[in-house]
Amino acid sequence: MTQAQVLPRRRSGLFKNPVVLKELRGRMRGARAFAVLAVYLLLMVGFALLLYVLSTASQDVFGFTSGGQIGRTLFTGIVGIQLFLVTFIAPAFTASAISGERERQTYDLLKTTLLPARTLVIGKLFSALAYVFLLLIAAIPLQSIAFLFGGITEVEVILAFVILAVTAITLGATGLYFSATQARTLSANITTYGVTLFITVGLPMLIFIAIALFTSLLGARQADIAAEVQVVLLYGLLALSATNPLVAAFLTQYWLLNKQSATFFYETVTSTMGIIQVPLISPWIVFCVVYLLIALVLVVRTIGRVRRIES
C-alpha cells in the first residue's frame, strides 16, 4: 500500500470547517433526514398529481385545455409548494442552532475549542442550508415533468431554483441571527417565524394594495398623469414587488412571457408627452440583490453577537 493510499483525502473550502463536518454527519447519520426527504417528496408528488387531476377535470368541464397550460399549472404549483415548505423548513434548522447549544449546555464546550465566531456561525448556517438545498435539488425532476406537457422553458426552471435558494439563504440567516440574540429556542422560533410571516404574508398584502392603487391611477386616465410620476410609480412598484419571493417570481414569469427577457426590458408609458420606453430590471435580479444583502448583514451581526457573548 502506497503512502498516497494511506493518507486521507485533503478537504478544501467549507468542508474544513469542523462545525460543518459535525453537523452534517449528525444530521445524515440517522433515519430522520431520509424520512424528512421522503415525506417532502411524497408531498410534492401528491400535490403534483392533485394539480394534474384538477387541470384535466377543468378540461372536461370547460372544454379544450392545451398541454402547455397544464404544464405551466404543474410548474407554478410545484414551485409554490416548494416556496411554502422552504419558508418553514429553512428557519427551523437555524433558529435553534446557537440557542440550542446554550440550552444543552454545550456552548461552553464549543468555546473551549477556540473556534472563531466566524467559523461557528458560517458552519451552522452552511450545514443547515446544505440539507435545504438537498430538498430543492431532489424536487427538480418533479419540476421537469412540466416539460412533457410544454409551456415552460429551462430559464424558468433555473430562475425558480435561484429564487428558492436565495429565499432559503435569507430565511436561514434570519433564524440564525435570532438564535444568537434570543436566550431560548422557543423565543427564537417565535421571533423568526413572526418575521417570516410578515415577509411572506404581510408584504404581499401591501404589494397587492400598491398594485391596485397603481392600476387605478394608470387606468383610463393614464395619459393625464405626468410621465415622471408614472416612472416613479413604476420603479417603486418594481422595488416593492422584489421584496417578496412569491411576488418576485410571479412578476418575473409575467414579464418573461410578455417581454421575452429575464434580465432587462422596456415598459411602455403613455402620457401627455407621448409614448416613453422605460428601462426596467427583472424583479428576480432586484430580489436576489436585496435578499443576499440582508443575509450578509444578518450573518455579520450574528458573528458580532457571538463574539460579544464569548467576551
Note down, in words, how this protein is organized.
The protein has helices at 3-6, 18-29, 32-62, 67-94, 99-103, 107-112, 117-138, 140-144, 146-149, 154-181, 185-217, 227-241, 245-259, 283-310, and strands spanning 264-271, 274-281. It folds into 2 domains: 33-205 and 291-310, no CATH class; 207-285, no CATH class. It is globular. A two-stranded antiparallel ribbon has the order 1-2. The chain contains 14 helices and 2 strands, in the order H-H-H-H-H-H-H-H-H-H-H-H-H-E-E-H. With 311 residues, the protein is mainly alpha-helical.
Topology:
Elements lengths: L2 H4 L11 H12 L2 H31 L4 H28 L4 H5 L3 H6 L4 H22 L1 H5 L1 H4 L4 H28 L3 H33 L9 H15 L3 H15 L4 E8 L2 E8 L1 H28 L1
Antiparallel strand pairs: 1-2
Helix pairs in contact: 2-7, 3-4, 4-7, 4-10, 4-11, 7-10, 7-14, 10-11, 10-13, 10-14, 11-12
What is the gist of this entry?
By secondary structure, the chain is mainly alpha-helical. It folds into two domains: 33-205 and 291-310, no CATH class; 207-285, no CATH class. The chain is built from 14 helices and two strands.
**Which structural class matches the secondary elements?**
mainly alpha
Main beta sheet: strand number and arrangement?
Answer: 2 strands, antiparallel
Total of domains: 2
In quaternary terms, these chains amount to single chain
**Residue share in helices?**
over 70%
Mean pLDDT: 80
Strand portion: 5-15%
State the low-pLDDT regions, or none.
none
Number of helices: 14
**N-to-C span:** 49 Å
The outline comes out as: globular
* Beta strand count: 2
- String of helices and strands: HHHHHHHHHHHHHEEH
Keywords: Membrane, Transmembrane, Transmembrane helix
Protein name: ABC transporter permease
Transmembrane segments: 33-54, 74-97, 157-178, 190-220, 232-256, 276-300
Organism: Candidatus Thermofonsia Clade 1 bacterium
